[in-house]
Each structure stands twice: as structure tokens, then as C-alpha cells.
Amino acid sequence: MIRIDSVTKRYPDGTVAVDRLSLEIPDRSITVLVGPSGCGKTTTLRMINRMVEPSEGTILIDGVDSRQQPVNTLRRSMGYVIQNAGLFQHRTIIDNIATVPRLLGWSKDKSRARARELMERVGLDATLAKRYPYQLSGGQQQRVGVARALAADPPVLLMDEPFSAVDPVVRKGLQDELLRIQEELGKTIVFVTHDIDEAVKIGSMVAVLRTGGRLAQFAPPAELLSSPADAFVEDFLGADRGIRRLSFFSSAGLDLLTAPIVAVDATAEQIAARADAGAPYLLVTDVEGKPLGWSEPGRLTAGRIDRGQLLSHGRPFVAGQESLRAALDCAVLSPTGWAVAVDGEGRAAGVVSQQAIGEAIRGAHEDSVGPAKVLR
Ligand SMILES: Nc1ncnc2c1ncn2[C@@H]1O[C@H](COP(=O)(O)OP(=O)(O)OP(=O)(O)O)[C@@H](O)[C@H]1O
Ligand SMILES: [Mg+2]
Q1: Is 41's pLDDT higher than 90?
Q2: Where is the ABC transporter domain (predicted)?
Q3: Which residues face 31 on adjacent strands?
Q4: What is the distance between the alpha carbons of residues 133 and 109, in angstroms, rounded to a whole number?
């Protein structure tokens, strides 16, 4: 849909912000532009909707040179979201969201109905409709910004560091919300960030730019992490690239052991049988099978298992659903060195040692990034 073809932007003072950039932005997915400050991300984004005109090269939208379209038509087909949302301070939330429909000549009622629908879609409580932007938290304002950009249902969303002004927890929520919205609405999203974790999490494709506006690498995140094109990209990905890459491998292949699991109401024979399985610790569950904690087998007495004596099992991972990174994290944090796997209902599905996870990681690396192992 959007093709950037050898585009250069030279500002009047001679600064080359973008240098012969070529990118094919796939339809209906999230493409992330990432790179250090001043590398030309905002300039690139603004050239797509012609807030900035390229000095050389062309940008094709659906195969048509963007300069052949009236600029207003072009901009209406592209929602734009910026850091701190950029809301109109003197307008209520609902009127902020209804801005573009109103400009397009929709009636007040229809525009507001649309705005209410969007508030729900981006997870904003309807009671906030009549407030002004200053009466909202930063995260809520950012959601309003997204709703406003979606109001006229444009096929494209351009987002310039939309979530960088909020704290990590709110940010994670906004990212999850964006992924959900993208899945539901199938928008083509170009998303700028300088946070590589954010890029890897939300991007289907990630373009890494270097200072001077040159493309360093354009690849799906798993490929970026496994095969950075050069030292600059590798450096930009950071020291824990290997650990991050594990988030693209499913935990489905892990061999979960159920032998070292014992229920809190187990009989003496059951405890003895589990102890014979040879595991240094047993995982004790409640009667529904939900994990309670670890114990050495010798410390367990039928009918008198004291929950207070158990070692914490930490945060379990959801078997098959979460990644090897999550499984490894559980094992590393576990006092026994074993991770606890649960099913969707939180019942213990099995336990797995650090060593077994290590072997699965080696196996996954050998298979490289075969499609069956990639989570997204
Ligand atoms: N209007 C302008 N006139 C001259 N130079 C400009 C102008 N706008 C941006 N630049 C320069 O172009 C380069 C790229 O700027 P741009 O805003 O695209 O970077 P960015 O990657 O978005 O950076 P950041 O991560 O800090 O937002 C920078 O060197 C910047 O100083
Ligand atoms: Mg910028």
C-alpha cells in the first residue's frame, strides 16, 4: 500500500534528515521505524502524509504517487497520533474524538455517536466523555489521541512515539490495546519509537534507521534479533538480544513432568510414590490442582501439609501459550530452579528444570526460526 522509493529529505539549512530511503510498508500490519534521536523517523512519517515534502524520490500510496492526490484527501486517509496526544485543550473528550467527522460534514449527533463507539473501542470509560483533556491521566489522553485518529476510519494510522510519555505499566497496556485494535480493524500502521523493546513487541516489520536517515535493516523482529545486519544494529538491539529473542520461541515443546506434583490432600502412599520419582522437590497443589508451593519430599506428611512451610513457586508460565523467555524467567526466579507450568485455568500442568529449558533453547536455536516456533 505505501511504498517509499529512494526518498531523500534535505531541509533548507542543508540538513539531510533522510537519505535515499526505500521501504515497502505491508498492508494491514504494524511497521515500526526505530533508531536513535535525530535519525529521521519523524521526517519520514511526515513525508508519508505530506506534512513534509520529500526533496527527492517518490512515495506511492496504492501504486499512485502521493503528490498526485489532493493533500487534504491524503491526510484524511491517514490518522495521525503524536506524543502527549496533542489534544485540543478547550474541547471535551467526545468533541476531540469527533473532530474529523465534524470536519467531514457529519452531523453533530452522528459524530458523537461515532466518538462514543471509539471510546469503548480504545478502552475509555463513557463517563469521561464530558471531561476536558487536563482532567485525564496521560495514558487516558493517549487513548483519546488514538480514538481521534481512528474517528473517520482511515485505512492508515501514523503514530509518532505515541506512548513514550507514559510509565511502563500504562505503556504496556496501550501497546496491548493497539495490538488488539490492529487485529480487529486491520489498519496499516506506521509506528515510530526509539524503544527497541516496543518495536520488537508490536512490529510485524521493523526498520532500523541510523543517524543521517539511512536504513540499517528492515526485517521481522525475530530476524532482527537473530541476525542483525551489522554492528550498529547489534549495538542498538542491546546486550540482552539473546534473551529477548527467546520471546519468539513457544514453550509448547517443553517436556513437562507431572510426577513431582502432589495435591495438598495426598495420601502417604501418593507422597511416597512421588518422592520415589527422584525429583529434589515436589510441587504441592490445592485440591483443584492450582500450585501452592514447593517442598522437599521428606518434609511432607499426609494429612498435615502446612502451606506456610512451602517455598514460593513464583510466577508460573502458561504452557504452550507463553514463550521460552517466560519459562526461563520462571525457572531463574524459582528457589528450586524449576519452573511451574499452568494451563489456562491456572492449574499445574507440569514442572520443568532450568536444565531442560536450556536444552529446549539450544534445540530452538538449531531449528532457527522455523514458522512453527515463532509465536507471532
Ligand atoms: N524543519 C527542520 N529544519 C532543519 N532540520 C530539521 C528540521 N526538522 C528536523 N530537522 C533535522 O532533521 C534530522 C531528523 O529529524 P527528525 O525529527 O526526523 O528525527 P527523529 O528521528 O524523529 O528524532 P527524535 O527521536 O529525537 O524524535 C535532525 O537532525 C533534525 O535536527
Ligand atoms: Mg521524532
Answers
A1: yes
A2: 2-237
A3: 190, 205
A4: 21
| Residue 142 CB-density burial (10 A; 0-12 exposed, 13-18 middle, 19+ buried) | buried
Residue predicted with more confidence, 214 or 1: 214
pLDDT tens for 207-261 read: 999 999 999 999 999 999 999 999 999 999 988 888 989 999 999 999 999 999 9
* pLDDT at 91 exceeding the cut of 80: yes
Instruction: Report which protein residue has its CA nearest ligand 1's atom 10.
Output: 17
Instruction: Tell me which residues have their CB closer than 6 angstroms to ligand 1.
Output: 11, 13, 15, 17, 37-43, 194
Residue 370 has pLDDT above 80, yes or no: no
If you measure from the C-alpha of residue 362 to the centroid of ligand 1, how many angstroms do you get, rounded to a whole number? 42
Domain with CATH 3.10.580.10 in the chain: 251-366
Bridge partners of 295, per DSSP, are: 282
CATH of domain 251-366: 3.10.580.10
CA of 37 to the centre of ligand 1 (A): 8
Instruction: Kindly report, as residue ranges, where domains of CATH 3.40.50.300 are found in the chain.
Output: 2-248
Protein residue closest via CA to atom 24 of ligand 1: 37
Q: Tell me the C-alpha distance between 19 and 10, whole Å.
A: 8
Alpha carbons 335 and 293: distance in angstroms, whole number: 10
The CATH classification of domain 2-248, taken from the options 3.30.70.260, 3.20.20.80, 3.40.50.300, 3.90.45.10: 3.40.50.300
